[in-house]
Amino acid sequence: MEIVFRGVIWFWRGPAPWYFVTVPEPHARELKAISATVTYGWGMIPVQARIGNTQWMTSLWPKDDRYIVPIKASVRVAEKLREDDMVTVHLTVG
Fold it and tell me: What is residue 28's three-state secondary structure?
């Protein structure tokens, strides 16, 4: 399954701070429909992600009936990304 969407990078300031992009609701519904066949536990879905020219392996995290994409520091540095930037995210599930 291939998913492409635009979203804003946001920062979670918890005990383990991290940057994310939220998967839009229509795509989240599609992901939820196949989650039982692709998850490795806790609802996490492995994906290959790409922003700009940078590609990496990660897992989508379930949150509030949607999914969030963690954006690694190496990706943010390579693509010169910051909180509140609008990005196009390409996901390959499975």
Answer: helix
